[in-house]
Amino acid sequence: MFARITGKQNQLLDCLAKAWSVEQIAQLQNVQAASVRRRINNLCTRLECRESDLAGLYSAWLDGQAGERNLIRQLCRSFLLAGPTAQDNILEDQAAASPAQAIEGPRHACPGDLPVSPQIRTRVVQEPYENPRIAITPGSKGTSRKVLQRAFPDNDACLNHIFHARMAGDYRCFKCRQERRWYRIAGFRRYATACCASSFAPTGRTVMHRSSIPLTDWFEIMLLFANSKNGVTGHFIERHLGIAYKSGFRMADRIRTHMALLECDRKIGGPGKLVHIDEALLRGIRTNGVRGGGRAIVFGMCDETATIALAVPDRKAATLLPLIDRHVLPGSILVTDAYHSYSQLAARGWNHEIVNHSRGEWVNANGFGQASIEAYWGVFKRTIRGTHLHVSRANLWKYIGEFNFRYNRRHVPHEIFWDMIEHFPDFDRQAELRIDIPIGPPRPRKRRPPRTDGVPRKRASRIFRN
Ligand SMILES: [Zn+2]
């Protein structure tokens, strides 16, 4: 109804009613005083009143005392862009009948309580939201492009899904903490309540933060990530969506981070359960622009349901044992090799089984082996070598997280995509997960002696970019 009352004008009127000075309002809204002054003048022109009357007019309207019908009409007339609709008349009659409960139901004690214009509500958010995931069963091929297009035909459908996923069933207003209806704000990836103009951008600080790429494209690439065996590269996205390589790499990087963040809090083991622990050396890690010169150590733990792997700076007990404490549930039986960093495990209260490979032992005297973690290394190393060839040290944890996300769901492939869009973790968390791997001095590289016959050395050409 108050088509031109925006959030800031709302706040402006509220401040004027509290007799704030122009300077105070400017400070609050983080704008110049001249801008506040200009907006006050605009309001006065539109309401045909003096500045001194503005605050009184607003307070009187807010107080909603009897006999204010004309005042409400006057305000409505001043602000309406189009003529009153039938709905407006009904609301106005309701306001007249009971001014205290004007327009948006019962009044409550939150500041700036003004109705939102019908022009900015494009759609009331439907509650409860029916998640398209519930129709996905093992036999229903929930992994296909057709299913994706049916569930998320346009950007609005994607945004609506993200909104409901992030609200997680709690639709209270952020300010007054009461159950409210949320409205989509037209033209923005943003939702708002009518009570305090609390607004919420579902894609903010998530995988799609400030991205101008359509949400349908994001969902499609996430489906490719879920369906592929070894992941998707930046060049693939460049070709698939017809966007720049930089945009494609950024999308891939962010989706990898998203998957790694979803996977980072996993715990494995439990009373009486076997947890296999091992570490592997990954060659071909890019350091300081030198390809293939570096190596990284990856530390892995797995039980029969899931695997956790982390990039670690070294193999010292001080590095590895806290990670075991963090990710393995108490009461588990740990199976490791005879590496000395694990020698303190029994002293720390773990049930510890050692398989001594140096004695040619692959299953120890008690019948414990390490086949499951060795199988994991085989697949993991092939993924990195086969698809990504060289990954940088700084990004390694994201590649590991992405791989684990798929690997841990390999028996339920129809769940992978839906798990990816079920939760949208805060990207600010990646700072705490990034493990700083110190980069040592580069290893001396063996260089071929220059040719003496004057023929220039041939460069290896890459036919198909990865
Ligand atoms: Zn509120």
UniProtKB/TrEMBL annotation:
Residues covered by the ISXO2-like transposase domain: 267-408
Region of interest called Disordered, as start-end residue ranges on this chain: 437-466
Protein name: IS1595 family transposase
Native source species: Novosphingobium cyanobacteriorum
SMART domains documented for this protein: DDE_Tnp_IS1595
Superkingdom classification of source: Bacteria
InterPro entries listed in its UniProt record: IS1016-like_transposase, Tnp_ISXO2-like
Bias (Basic residues): 457-466
